[in-house]
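Recall that a protein's primary structure is simply its ordered list of amino acids. Everything else, from secondary elements to tertiary packing, is in principle encoded there. The following example makes that idea concrete.
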Amino acid sequence: MTRLTGLWGKCRRIFGRKRLSQRDAAQLVDTLYRKLLLRAPDPSGLETYTALLREGGATVADVLDALMTSPEFFASRAELAQRYYPHQRDGFFADISQFGEVSTLLRAMIDMSCTNKILVDVGVMGRSGSNSYDLLRWFGWQGLLVEANSGLIDSIKAQFGPLNYRIVNSAVSDHAGTATLHIGSSDGVSSLNEGHSRMFGATRGSITVQLETLPAILEREQIPLHFDLLSIDIEGEDMKVLSHLIASSPYRPNWIIVEAGNVGDYRAGSLPLIAAFDENYEAVGQTQANLIFRRRGLLAALHGAAPA
């Protein structure tokens, strides 16, 4: 609240004047963008809001409302919490209970549904869009982060900081060896499949990477057979790696998040996965790009009605 109070104080000082100069209006718009959207204003936004403020077409409250009700501000809420409250243990929750009781309750309930709080994130890339960071940061999980692009390793370490994780710099496929990683127009679309990467724009080059199978990595890193979460996002290789894991190893993560694109309502056989996958897993959730699966029998195992 101190930071917001300071921001409002600055607004009051500037807008207490009868007329607002071009310089003051532009400076305020720049500050609002950087503090609320965590970026510099785009030229169009800077020009539009500066003109409105200078000419009296909008108040500072109008500009704040426009920015703070935008989809971009909503999407930035986790990053805002991380930036302004880095040491707040319950910053993940929008909790209005008296002293954080709901946060404590939810954390305890989630812990009860876990067996080991171990996650494996294949294709981690970084904190943005991560399926692992929140569990590591807010819920005390431990993780194995796997990334093919050696150029991202230092930034991953910086973004994940002192959390409980290990990093493996390796590409993952259904066989071992070497391969070419095509660096996409953005880091999130780099792929072993050049055609897949080019679907999103021109590539920015390529690097030679070491290939490993996922079972080999899990065994070397001493990951338990029923670790709690596997997240796979490796641009076109996801189904191949997931099928290989089920076909060639005893590893059966309790939960799986896998990038599948827009597949509509999931049903057995709708993806290029081996039949044994649907025998072992049931779909329980879906987002714009990902499917979420739960291991069959997990609920009974957690409640002691059947062996894990």
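The longest helix spans residues 22-37. The chain has two domains: 2-84, 106-302.
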